[in-house]
Amino acid sequence: MSQENSKSDRNSPIYAGCGCLVLLILLWPLTFYAFELPSFLKSANKAKQAEAKQYVSSINQAQQANFLDRRSFSNSVEALGIGLKTETTNYKYSIRATNQAVFNYGISKQELKSYIGGVFVVPGKKVDAKVAKNEMTTASILCQSDSPGTIEPAEPTYQNGKLICGQGTTEVTK
Fold first, then answer.
1. pTM of the predicted structure, to 2 decimals
2. DSSP code at position 28
3. Count of domains in the chain?
């Protein structure tokens, strides 16, 4: 009779419920990895990318100020005198300048999104209608690569009075 009671206890809804509870307790940590960990990693990457976004944006602003003062762009981060490192744990920063534009890079050293800023010499009338007809000024854009990687993103362009991010990049809104 005690064997029958044991069998009937195992088939009871209470016994089955306890099995499910044990299973839930054992599987709960796995749900963190399945659902929460990717979200956590994405947040960590966004925090790391915020550094590059800020650095390249600061370099863009410094280039604009440099052009207004000297009528030329700087070829190095150090020469801008803004106290930014050219390399951090996650990014390398560099500059490529021409007479009409400068491109400021924040290239990922890991699997993070990279950034590129562009500052262009443009007719002042395109930026401010009150500016003299022949006066030149600058306009800038900040672009983020569409996917993570360590490859230099395509440079933005100035076409028909508009700044456009290069292929495979998207403009970062402020």
1. 0.74
2. H
3. 1
